[in-house]
Amino acid sequence: MSFNQQNLDELNLLIRFTLSTMQEGIKVHATASPATIEATRRLHQKGLITLEDGGYLTTIGHEAAEHAHALLGLINPA
Predict the structure, then answer these.
(1) In angstroms, rounded to a whole number, what is the distance separating the alpha carbons of residues 13 and 16?
(2) pTM given for the model
(3) What's the structural domain count of the chain?
(4) 25, 44, 59, 78: most buried, per Cβ within 10 A?
(5) Which domain holds residue 70?
(6) If the chain, 78 residues long, is cut into consecutive pieces of 10 residues, what is the mean pLDDT of each piece?
């Protein structure tokens, strides 16, 4: 099994969230790329974010975002 483009789109969205606070969310506008809009909808359907167009990370979403940030750091060191 490998990451598909939908997985990558979702991971790219998760790393946009700030992990230091649960009080900061994101808004995905209608002018965003179709792939980003769909990734946002999928993350909402999976219960990782609070709104279909972004919002805040849920508890499990925060954990997923932490893993996404960690993975990015491991495969793309500074």
Answers:
(1) 5
(2) 0.91
(3) 1
(4) 44
(5) 5-75
(6) 96 95 90 97 98 96 97 89
